[in-house]
Amino acid sequence: MKMKFVYVAIAISLGVVSLKAQQKAVYLDDNQPIEARVKDALSRMTLEEKVKLCTAQSKFSSHGVPRLGIPEIWMSDGPHGVREEILWDSWGNAEWTNDSCTAFPALTCLAATWNPQMSAIYGKAVGEEARYRRKDILLGPGVNIYRTPLNGRNFEYMGEDPYLASKMVVPYIKGLQSNGVAACVKHYALNNQEVWRGSIDVQLSDRALYEIYLPAFKAAIVEGGSWSIMGSYNKVRGQHACHNDLLLNKILKGEWKFDGCVVTDWGGAHDTKEAVFNGLDIEMGSYTNGLSSGKKFAYDDYYLASAYLKGLKDGTYPMSSIDDKASRILRLIFRTAMNRNRPWGSFTSDEHYNAARTIAEEGIVLLKNESAKKKEAILPLNGNKYRSILVVGENAIRRLTEGGGSSVLKVKKEVSPLAGLQAKFGDKVKYTMGYASGKPVYDREVAPDFNTDSLHAEAVKQAANADLIIFVGGLNKNNFQDCENADRKSLALPFGQTELINDLLKVNKNMVVVLLSGNAVEMPWIKNVPSVLQAWYPGSESGNAIANIITGEVNPSGKLPFSFPVKLEDNAAHSFGAIAYPGDGVKEEYKEDILVGYRWHDTKKIPALFPFGHGLSYTQFKYGKAIADKKDISGTEEITVTIPVKNVGNVKGKEVVQLYIGDEKCSVIRPVKELKDFQKIELAPGEEKIVSFKVGKDALKFFNETLHDWVVEPGAFKVYIGSSSTDIRSIVNFVFN
Asked: How does the average pLDDT of the chain come out, rounded?
């Protein structure tokens, strides 16, 4: 029997599809166009079956149509790996023995690679794991903009710049969906904080919406072709985002022509009428106790369940509404669960571990690299120079795939930073904890099981006798750290780390600090620490990736996807009082408007501690003079800008050449410059490459709120080319007529 008749054979054996029906069933034939299959299946369904498609049947699945052999949809949390199996009707773990996944680096690390090829590798690999686990939707990737460094879920996203996030998300989606597993881009939209996330009403301008917060979502839909999207918990201009007329009807399904499914975040639906009319398709998690608490909390009481069915029967809601929702869900099913041509997938393979390590290595950012005596940089570390290396810090041994909320992972393998360093340097490496935190618990802080004063004192004592200290700290996945459901309480390092670093420096200034976090942190000690690595959350191959960077086996090439402010008040969202963050408990006003991240630092002349796009290497790159082939353009013309870049150091390395555009005079406020292109190149010692960029009208536009359209005003523009948003190596002037 041919594969395309597998579902039919099962249905016939159950007596639910006749042979005659099977012969005419267009929806069961893979050779038919999807739209023909959708139309055919829809014509065979009862009203009750159509409505059933719109709601959950368990914690992570929604209904199919058993009578027609149409399977349910199975989902899994992501986007850094495939979450362990959850019980049908509660949040308890199913305790399977074969669901330990590969942990891929957090998306901040992926964004820090500035390499779309890494996104493609990432998406394909995590998609293979999801397919192997028989998932139809992976809940990710996340592309909410990094607005404040206190947001507990920033580690799940791709930084502060809409252009960078747009370029990085598209290959991820294409790689993931090549496995027949749908991406579910999240959280659409304006979900930029966890405090009051279920109720806060975000107020912002159309310019900020279209220029900053929507481009990555648009790229995911229009260029990436994402098959589903997840609504966010918050309100936007008075309506919850999961059933928001502006976001879902007018923009997503109207302007962007999205033909896939809108899925709620779990419990994100609040009203049947709004859910019917304002663009929602699949409702998940409205009640956390499911059927186990009886009829009152049954799945039939979801907003798109019995209340919707009743309204359809009595004429309150038009039949066209359910036909649209059911068509979208069927289209998703035919792309995934009923796509018999999709590959089988694979799980925790060497290929996936290699992918995780490579992505981590490309994403780790060398923030600072000097020596204690200002003669020779500490990194890359030559083990022969040191008799004793003291590793200090809980994050050197802590499993950072645990906790964090819905991104929690049960992993088959996680190499700790300590294990990675011990593999390189053997018995030279000694370890002391230095500080400690409690176990990760979703909704509260837990005290550590250690005497932290004793840990602190012991670390200082051992540091005095060590040749080198490698401090491995940062944040973790505990509540009020990098964790869903709560924001950070401050920009400072938690658990007494700042005090510990200062005391360690008093007895030994030969120190490397390795920060594991998804957010910027305050660094009052930065002038006294010779070398600092921002290593993010690197996943299963964490320790190996970090050790390879520290030893120079891999030359660091990551660049920051967001700015590190000196102090919290230097961040735009924190410059206008509580109404701008976190709001007054009811609403929040994005008063910084389009000046997010480096746009704020540049325009307001507030230096960042480490700027957007910053990242050092173990070699040096010399930029020549940028040259444009035209001095003015008009209409659809483009200018080509070229710049020579040469590796003038002694080792092979990768550099991210960044292009920014500045509008010299405009009728509306514009940032000093905005990222509009970048290329990551690899150069051997002494090698030079000519990097070429094309700049056209689209790179010059801003969103005109009066016309509700993208426009460009004639005048003078600048092309800035550099190694970061502040390290500009060459400038080209041109005019748009």
From this structure: 94
